[in-house]
Each structure stands twice: as C-alpha cells, then as structure tokens.
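Because showing beats explaining, we let one protein speak, sequence and backbone structure tokens together, and leave readers to judge.
___
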Amino acid sequence: MNETDEIRGKAEGTAPVPLSVLDLVTVGAGRTATEALRTSVQISRLAESRGFHRYWVAEHHSMPGVASSSPAVILAHLAAHTTRIRLGSGGVMLPNHAPLVIAEQFGTLEAMAPGRVDLGLGRAPGTDGATAAALRRTDRLNEGADDFPEQLAELTRFLDDDFPPGHRYARIHAVPGPIQSTSPGGVQSPHRPPIWLLGSSGFSARLAGSLGLPFAFAHHFSAQNTIPALDLYRESFRPSAVLDAPYALIGVSALATDDEKEARRQVLAAALNMVRLRTGRPGLVPTPEEAEAYEFSAMEREFIDTWNSNVIHGTSDEVRAGLDDLQKRTGADELMLTSHAHSGDLRLRSYDLIADAYGLPQAS
C-alpha cells in the first residue's frame, strides 16, 4: 500500500464519501476522565466494526470537559483495542512541541499499528494564551505560529531521516524510524505516517495545497470559512509524491438520537459548555437539565443559535440528509464526524444510528 492509498478512503454503504470520527474525549458533569476514555475505546471499536475509515483524537489543554491533552497516549491505547481502522491526530499542535518529539511519538505509534497511523498537524495552541505560554515556555506565542512552515519541514525530515550532510541535525535520528532499516542487521520498515495539515482559515489550506498534502478543515467551529478555505486549497494544490490530486476532509459536528427532542436537549447542553469556554469559564459538559434551567442572556442566546445552526442533529434520517447536503455544498472528499453530548452512551448510539442510516456494514 502506498501513501496515497492510506490517505484516500473508501465510501461504505450509501454514504457519498468515507465517514470518519473525531474524538475530543468529552467529560460530562458527574463523569470521570476514566469513563470518557472507556467511551473512546467503545466508539473506536464500533467505528471499526461499522466501516468508518479513520479515528482521530484532537489535542486540547486546560479544559475540564475535554480529556484529550495527550493524543499520542490515547492513540496508543486505542491501537491496543482495534486492528484495522486508521488512527491519528486531529491534530497535534506542532508549535506546542519539539518536532523531534512528535517524530518519536508517531514513529512509536507506527511501530505499534503498522500502516494505519495518520499525523494531523495544526498551528493553533489548542488552548488559551496563558496555557500555550506554559506549554511552550515562552510568551512569544506568535513566533511559534509564524515558524510553522519551518517546523513542519524539520518534522518531515526527522520522519524521513533525510537531513542533508552538514546539517546540525544530520546525525540525529527519530527512533523508531527509517534509521533502523539502514543500521547493520536492520529490518525496520522505512514507512512513516502520512502528514495532514489541519486548519480553520486560509493559512494551512494554502500551505497544504502548495506542498501537495491532504487537508482537514474544522467546519465544526469555523463553518463560515469552509468553502473559501477548500477553494483556496484546491486552487493552491500542486501534485506531489504524496498526492496527485487534492484530498480534503471536513470536521462536522453531528448527533443522531432515537428521539429528536433528546438531540435538541443534548445539543443545547454542549452549546452551554461552549458559551462557558468562550467566556473564560471552561468546565465539564453540563447535563441537559442544567442547560434547560440556565438563564441565557440575549448575547448568549444569539451565540447558541449561531453555533447550533452548524450542528447537524436530530433523528438518523435528519442527520443523514444534513450530511448529504453539506457534502454536496462543499465537495468534501471525506466527512469526519464529532459528537458532543453529556452522555457517552448517547455519543456511541449516535455513530451506530448514522451507520445504520447509510447502510454501513453491521458489527460482526
């Protein structure tokens, strides 16, 4: 299998494009991170058995309701509980880490789950400025974002083990990695995880296109920029050894329930959580009862109405229709679904209902 085959998925059932999962490992009020991580294992196994193409984990920090601060650790755990589904980061925030560390972490993941690891990279901090400063041990946060192309190039060279002679890192090797195949007696595969660029604006779209890399756009929190960013990616695209044509997925917030009313209740609770996050009061995902009793200000209500207009929710048929329409409007090559609900059981049920709606393979 070549790298292009690993990037391009296959649509199952009647889905217009491959379907995948984005997991934030959400923690609801009254629940623990342990329970949230157990739910992630359940969802990853369900996704694998129902024909979803890939399962990504997003890096976030200092958010009580999001237990995905260490994607590489979580992915190692999921690799031990799955056998076929692609696993990856959606994404690792490159400015938060030394490129060598990421190359080592994902080289290790590749050794654990050969041929099914993706490395999705973002340039945002995945948190607030103060936390980003603590992560990066500097107050010059713009410097990290501005240096993203150089950091990406350095990471790629560590993954490929191809720094030119005389480079200060020429004698440094990311292990596990290609160096093991060239060492005496070495039999290590030189394969490395394909790189994806993630974004919510035009910067990463243009960079991904110019480098001929696959692109993932965060439609679930930047819907107004989706079509402009995808257009820019396609216009900027230059064929590469990785891809001969553009390939773009979009992250979509979607929740299907057996009862339409329950979908509205869960979506309201998730939106209240987002209101608190945006106003500097991050917490656990509230219960639907707490959200229904909450007195929203006019400004908060306006935010919620706008936010929820981009959440596809309702019965399985309603969600399928919404996803079909979104794919037609954007031309996305893949839809990556993320579900936000207080209950892990409801999140699990949502993916099962969406799989049923598209006639995806039944769990064996």
